[in-house]
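Fold sample X.
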Amino acid sequence: MDDSTQHNLAILFADVAGSTQLYDTLGDICAESQISDCLSTMIAVVGDNNGHIVKNIGDEILCHFPSANLAASAACTIHETLADKRSDLKVKIGINFGPTILKQGDVFGDTVNVAARMVGLAKQEQIIVTGSFYDSLINPDNFNQRKLDSLKVKGKDHLVDIHEILWKGDDTELTCFLSAKSILETKQEWSAQLKYHGTECLINRSHPTVSLGRDNQCDAVIHSQQASRQHAVIISRWGKAVLQDKSTNGTFVTLNTNSSTAYREASDEIFVHMEEFALPETGIISLGAPAKDNPNDLIYFKYL
């Protein structure tokens, strides 16, 4: 392929989950050795499926494939190979398909940006793909999958369909998911309200994403120095407001309180770090520190 040309490609990001904690637990030398072995395994699988490595940075690889099927096959094989090796390391994968600019061995464009958003949504051992990717599969029935939701993705004016490829081949979770979906479709429109320093934000089906952090581009700009610039996102998912923590210090959620002083006596405080948590009916969010240590920058939420 020539440089500065555009092709329809499958873009795959694969990220080793929990690598930061591994360095802290095992020490630099042992952790680097395990991560390096995991990356080598992924790179070999990509090559076996006619993929091309674009970048190998730290604990993540970026690669592209000429077809969606090859990318899906590679993603499933990565997880299967690591499981067969009984590796302690787990990987999360995000994939998109569409027009991609190839220039000097690198990839650019909206397709790449959205693929990066997909790996950000994935949890360990998950393969999260866009609707565009899934629609590009030849014989998609060869891959067990479930549609998760249609979400607002940063930088996109429209909702993006999100699917998960179920590489383990177990449809138990799929059955439960579809049953929950059929029930939720009968519910009335819902909203969750966030309050911070007199400012209110709503999250619902028509406004399905609210970002939290110190960055001025966030929907709710939190002034606490404990907060990361892009700290967390709250998304609408099947009738629930789901918190996705993306921060260094984590997020603390105090459950079932709607008074400004109740956090002082509350004992049910959940720590969420680099994972998802479905918010309860009402409570308090504290970015980067427990609520009792962060009284001036608390976010109050409740379902309406």
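Fold sample Y, listed below.
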Amino acid sequence: MTTVTPVPTGTPIEDRRTVNLRIETTRPQPSDALTPASMPVLRMESLSVYYGSFRAVRDITLDVRTNAITAIIGPSGCGKSTLLRALNRMNDLVPGARVTGKVLYHGEDLYGPRVDAVEVRRRIGMVFQKPNPFPKSIYDNVAFGPRVNGLRVDMDALVESSLRRAALWDEVKDKLKQSGMALSGGQQQRLCIARAIAVEPDVILMDEPCSALDPRATLQIEELMMELKRNYTIVIVTHNMQQAARASEETVFLTMGEERAGHMVEKGPTSEIFTNPKNQLTEDYVSGRFG
């Protein structure tokens, strides 16, 4: 259950997470019918995303399970990245973009009038397709988010902890003052993951995080994802069927309809989607007959 508490006037900037809103999340106590592993951290209800008059994603109703990896697959242009970006309001930054329906985070509508998009993006972080470290030192890349959010913490400890969680500490601990842009592609992507988790998000969104990496770096990212899901919920968009099959517990298959709007065909446990899908379109896609 989520409660919304306005930040009192005069609150020191160091203690603020938002300007007008703090979202405080209290997870419901499990019952016999609903265990923590089955509780959705995110729920989409009839979600559609438009760019101007064009509807890119149509009527998605979907739950994202806590502490699991959910893969979104589908042919190019079916709205996978658009759907992912709707989950933390990144589409707000695109002129003419709008959504209908709801995205609920622990029951709170993220598109509600009192919700601060900046706080949403802190709680629901994003790792992009191409590694995008800031032109700063490795240390400052990781410390950037906590500093901007005014977190009063032991920064050295937080940087080390974030780099350790991103499986990068041992490789960079002696060169923290060197530029993050001097790292290899796989190291840069893990640095971006460390930067994302430094602000203690609840959910990590990954948009084709391995498409620019070699097979070894891809395997490192996949192994890292398996470690991170112990503490975070992960949603990944991927064109790589083998990656979706290896790394995720749940898979969502999108395709395009007559309006060229992406819609969900099927969602289920990854093992079932790849071995015994319920829909013929899903079977055709995962078997390589189209896409």
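Sample Y note: The first strand starts at residue 2 and ends at 5.
Also: Residues 2-286 form a domain with the Rossmann fold fold (CATH 3.40.50.300).
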